[in-house]
Each structure stands twice: as C-alpha cells, then as structure tokens.
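Morning, I've got a small favour to ask if you have a moment. I'm working through a protein record and want to make sense of it properly. The fold is given in discrete form, as structure tokens running alongside the sequence. Can you walk me through what the tokens say about the fold? Thanks so much in advance, here it is:
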Amino acid sequence: MTSRPPRRADAQRNYDRLLAAAETVLNAQGAGASLDDIAKVAGVGNATLYRHFPTREKLIEAVYDRRIRALCDATEKWAAAGRPGEALVGWLREVVVHITESRVLGEAFMAAYQGPADAEPPQITAWHRSVREAAAPLLAAAQEAGAVRPGLGVAELVALTTAVARAGTPEQAAGFLDLLLEGIVPR
C-alpha cells in the first residue's frame, strides 16, 4: 500500500471524490470505463483527474489500494471486539464481500497493467502481503483460543477464503465460506 504526501483540503476532497466515482463507474462499466465519465461523476474536470492520476492504471491502483487498506484496518476493529474466533470469522466474511464486490475492479486493474504478462504485478504482491500481515494476529488469537485448528497458516487461510469467494456467484460465496469454516474449526 502506498503512502501519499499531505494535500490541501480541497485537493483531498477531489481525490476522494475521484476514487469513489472511479469505483462506481468501473464496477458499472468495466475496465474500459471512460475516464471522462469518472471525472464527470466525481464533479471535477479532466485536468483534475489527470493531475491526481496521470494514467488509468494509477487511478485503478489507487481505488483498489484504498479498498485493501480498509480491509486491513478492519482487522483491528475485529480484534478489539473481543472473542477471537468470532473476530476471525467476522473479518473473513468481510474478505469475501471485498472479493465479490471487487471482481470487476480487479479485472480492470489487470487490464490496465503494463508489465509482463507472466508476472504478478508488484502492487498485487504488496497487497497480498499486507492482507496476510493484517490477518496473522487474528488467526493467531483464534488458534490460541482453540477456535481454529492449530497448524493452519495465514497464507493457507487467505488463499482458501479467496478461492471460496471467487467460486461460483457472489451470492454463493457466503455459503462456500460457511463450508470452509466448518473445515477449520477443531473437532
């Protein structure tokens, strides 16, 4: 996840509006969504969009980065809520929602990616690392409380959760997660 320098209040408002508009438009229109449409929905001019995001890839990356940051920050909320097993399950449900709601956005990011076709983009690698690092304390606490099988690694848990979220339709994902959760609870 990237850090950015502080902005003037009006510039920050424009930046936030552009990210919200981009997510909405990209989810509605897909990877080929018009940048003009995004600027129009955000209520800013094209020059403002390009000043903040010189390329389509940078805009999509910023939208997805914001979603990943929120997902990682949610682990702290869940950890503070108390019961470790319930905290982990609650967060995993958020992961499933994130994945099912980000399908088009993820496709748009990959379509805009300018790097080698046979390599994972570096930003995706960084996002995966951030998610695993954020999830590790939740998993460790749930294992220590006896709510989750010992020996289950955070990479395995995130990979399995991602797989069930991508399998089938978004409507089926919650049911698939329930099946996964049955499998990680100690017997």
